[in-house]
Amino acid sequence: MSDDLKCPQCNSEHVYQDGSLWICPECAHEWNPDAAASAPAADGSEIRDANGNVLADGDSVTVIKDLKVKGSSLVIKGGTKVKSIRLTDGANGHNISCKIDGVGAMDLKSEFVKKA
Prior knowledge:
Elements: E1 16-18, E2 21-23, E3 30-31, H1 33-38, E4 61-63, E5 67-68, E6 75-76, E7 81-82, E8 86-87, E9 94-100, E10 104-109, E11 113-115
Antiparallel strand pairs: 1-2, 2-3, 4-7, 4-11, 5-6, 8-9, 9-10
């Protein structure tokens, strides 16, 4: 068997190599571990902006519409550029953490930004 390689489909330890592919005899799943490591996540875990572009830590984004800041009279105007975002697993769909000039630390939803 392989050293610590498991089937990504059924998590079986009984896998074997056939050329460049690995095969699971229990569920008949075939995969290439080198290609799987470089491919984007297919489970929807990647965060996308309003246009469908994949976002990453450190990207710059632009707010696409006026956003009211909850608990304050401040408004983040559409067109505001935000630099150095951090992707988070925040609550209520707020999956971007950032600092906005004049406002401070904020959490944003990716559906209200576009990649700059």
